[in-house]
Every structure is written in structure tokens, then in C-alpha cells.
Input
Amino acid sequence: MGSSTAALTCLVVDDSRVIRTLARKMLVGLGLTTSEAENGAVAYEMCLASRPDLILLDWNMPVLDGLSFLKKIRATDLDRQPKILFCTTESEFSKITEALAAGADEYIMKPFDEEILASKLHMVGAL
Amino acid sequence: MTMDPNVFATVASFLKAQSGLALTPDKAYLLNGRLQPVAEQHGCKSVAELVAKLNGAAPAQLKQDVVEAMTTNETSFFRDTTPFEILKTHVLSQLLERRKVRRSLRILCAAASSGQEPYSLAMLMAENAARLAGWKTQILAVDLDTKILKRAEAGIYTQFEVQRGLPVQMLMKYFEQCPGGWKAKPEIRSMVQFQRCNLLEPFSHLGEFDVIFCRNVLIYFDTPTKRHVLDRLANQLAPDGFLFLGGAETVLDITTSFAPSAGHRGLYLRTEALRDRKAG
Ligand SMILES: C[S@@+](CC[C@H](N)C(=O)[O-])C[C@H]1O[C@@H](n2cnc3c(N)ncnc32)[C@H](O)[C@@H]1O
Output
């Protein structure tokens, strides 16, 4: 990752349009291509259809929440699993532990800024 | 608000003498904003009144407060990543070989600011505990700024700070949640000693080190001050030791005490050692 010439794709999963727009602007500014989903169920379908490199994932969403989505995608047989960064207001030690155990690669606690996003993308090898 | 040129000149020469900070006229705008709170705290009606007091007879606390108000403490965990990669791979393997009889390492973190850099070094050592089993490692973190050192020693960071440069797995492993943020665990804090030290003043009492991190502080100094600090750091570094500077810093055209280590960005070696190796 990171060295290929084509821009990496990031699926932004959040039920708040405001957050999705904010994240999209920051990601595009960092050179990534983005798509958006408003809950885990939509995100799952989009994942199967378009195989994003990365997923920025909210926790609390209607229909299918972030943690359930994460478990579901990690149990799906894909030739390449996406890097998954939680991005949520959940900031309890126990929640983060739960997310990591379920297979999250990184964890962003809201509120965040572009510097934090860039730093976390760097850590998963996307920058 | 425009700054009286005399006030600017007084502060600039005061800071250069006290901390080495080379205050350029384009930074004059910083003065009022940063010194106003200090003026109030010391019962002065204006920044000009405060500055007028900055002569030899001024109370030490007033001088220290002015110096500290003007320092830049910007830092982050594992800042720039690469130096820590080079330390973990290249430097550590060299030192494990070279110090295998003594089995001890001393690291100096000069200009440690709020502690992210020395704690990053401590975490790096902890991550490499297996390679370092039976070794004694000491990390000495110094800074001129006593307020920032207190913060560093407490080891408490905001949610914003722990998300800059620190992988979440390390946050979980080496920090615990506390009111106001995240606190470095005792096992990490106990690996670092903090001490006030002005790099302009003698520091030979700190002893000899195998690795020196002196990053993002020389950029604030003029060339003679950089040379003065670098040459004395060379005296405190083992002849076969390693010096790390910040991304915007170099030794080129400043001193011949150090030379860049080929292929390792930000890493410098004592020229004496390079000469010996070539001769031998
Ligand atoms: C920008 S921070 C660098 C922190 C860290 N080394 C890094 O690279 O992230 C600069 C620090 O240098 C300290 N400093 C400035 N002048 C100094 C001096 N003469 N002696 C020791 N420390 C000094 C400041 O107090 C400040 O904490």
C-alpha cells in the first residue's frame, strides 16, 4: 500500500452527513479517493461491490452498527481485507479493546482534525 | 499593535543570552501576545514595563517566566517516524554488539518538551525488551522550561495528543485512562528521568551517552550558538555513539564534530569515529 500510483480508495461510513463531508474533504486533501455509506449494511454491500482499500468507520449507526459491520467483514472471504480505522466518539478503554479484538487496524477518537487523520493513515501504511 | 523597536531589541538580546533563541523581527508579533500574561502576573501595567525590568537585577522567576513564555514546545509521539525506525533497526543492533560486555545504554533526550519524545524512546525500548533482556537502559530527558518539564513528568496527555504519532496498540499497552486524558503507565514513566538543563550552559555533569536526541531546538538558534551546542554535545557522546537531529537541522557548514551517517536521514556520527574507522 501507499507506493502504488493509483489513489487509494476510502469508504467513509457514518450516519452523520456532516461528518462524512468533513472526512471526505480531509481525505481528498490527503490524496485519497472516497465513497460514502450511512450505515454498516450499506457499507457491507458497497465493500463487496467495490473493494475499498480503507474504511473509516463510525460505531453507533442505525441498521448495522460499526462493530457488527467490522465482525461481519472480517468473517467474509475477500482476497484482500481492507484496513479499518474506527472513527467514533466512543473513547473508553474497554471499547477500544473490543474494537481491536474484532480486527480494527486503528482507532480515531472524535473530535479529530486533519493532523490526526493523516497520522493514523500513515500508521496503517496509507500515506 | 506595533512593537517599539527598543523593546524588541531588548527582548531579543535577552532571549539570545538566556536560551539561545534567535528572535527575528518577523516574529515580533508574537511578543505582545506571549508576554502580556507574564506582565500581568508580575504586576506590570504593560509589556514595555515588564521588558524594562529585564536587566541583571531582575528576579530570577521573572526572567524564567519570560524565557518560558517565548519557547515553542510543539512536539508529538514518534515525531517524523524515521528516526525511531533507524534507532530500532540500525542503531540498536550496532549498540547491542558494541556494548555487549557492559550491557548498558544511556540515552539523552535534549529539549524533551512535554515528554512525548522521551516516552516514545521508552516505549521503543519496552517493545524491544526481548533484545535488551538483562540490559540496563537509562533515558535522561532535559529541557530549559520548568513548567513543561512538570507536565512531562506527570505523563498525562489529552485525547488529541495521544492520537498524534502514537499507534492505538501502544496507547492500549502503555497508557491508562485518567481524568483529563491518558497517563503513561508507571513502567514507562520510571524509565525516564527528567532534569532541567539549559543547553547554553555547561552540561558535562550529565555524563556520557550512547545516543543523543537533540531535535527541533537548534532551529531556533543562530549558527555560532548551534556550533557551541553541537561541539559540547560531541563531548558527551561516546566516540562511537549516535546523534539524532530534527528534519530541518544539519551539521553541515556549522561544525566538523559530526558528519551525517550515509543512508540514515537525521542521524549523525562523531567525525573522530569515522576517521578512526577509515584509518583502521
Ligand atoms: C519544539 S520543542 C522540541 C521537542 C522535541 N525534541 C521534538 O522534536 O518534538 C523545543 C524545546 O526546546 C526547549 N529549549 C529551547 N531552548 C533551550 C535551551 N537553551 N536549552 C534546553 N532546552 C531548550 C524548549 O523549552 C522546547 O521545549
